[in-house]
Design brief:
The chain is mostly beta strands and 282 residues long. It has two domains: 89 residues, Immunoglobulin-like, CATH 2.60.40; 177 residues, Glucose Permease (Domain IIA) (Distorted Sandwich), CATH 2.70.70.10. Helices cover 12% and strands 35% of the residues. A hairpin with a 2-residue loop joins strand 10 and strand 11. The longest helix is centred in the middle third of the chain and has 15 residues. The protein is globular. Bound molecules: zinc ion (ZN). Zinc ion (ZN) binds next to loops.
Length: 282
Amino acid sequence: MAVRFNTLCLLLLGLSGSVSARGLEIEGVWQQGATLIGRVEPQAQVTFAGRQVRTTGQGRFVIGLGRDAGTEAVVEVRSGGGELTRHTFAVKQRHYNIQRIDGVPARTVNPPPQSLQRIRRESALTRRARAGDLPREDFLQPFIWPLRGRITGVYGSQRYYNGEPRRPHYGIDIAAPTGTPVRAPAAGKVTLSHGDMYFSGGTLILDHGHGLSSTFIHLSEILVEPGQEVEQGQVIAAVGASGRATGPHLDWRMNWFEFRLDPQLVVGAMLPAAAPGRAAPP
Ligand SMILES: [Zn+2]
């Protein structure tokens, strides 16, 4: 309900017009890292971030905002009658923290020259797996946590590894013992399964349709194969500490095509009752 309320606020502020009159409805808060679910009339065409956006038979679609998205976003809707409307939204800017992680394997902070080719090859595989635009509608499901545990890393943090600045952290880290089952947060199709990538170790990518995907890294075991379709809640992998990691945890990332999204904005709060090491609420 909070989501709807925020959309309503934007409407009241005049940043968007009335939903029915302007032919566009958006669920979600316009902020960096957000995943937004939209609806238009079934015949309408949607353009966002320079991309023609796939819509379902009911006019539903998904778009996403990257970590460093600018202050304004524009959704263009062409109605079935051919009329084009530009919808402009203000994007809330976030403040990201700094996180220092010491004790990761030195080769994962400063890769030797002979590893660069492998690293490039692997990042091309990952890019390709996230580039698909499948007509699946799994993105409409309410997402669930892939496992429960202490959150040790959040989306967007500026990271220093062994004291050296590196790219920001794009996932959410959940600490759990090696071997802990990882469940599909929503249904999807496996588009990448790799036992040992240079930085990310055991890596699995699940496509939820329309460009929305989940990536799970540092896995010790992967239980599904590329092309396989999985149900929400199905065990797909096991937690590990492979790649650039100091201990066993799940790193869950989400993408809308190349844009990095914040999984925590999609799945909501983890219920404290089920988080290990915390007291259950009365
Ligand atoms: Zn991580």
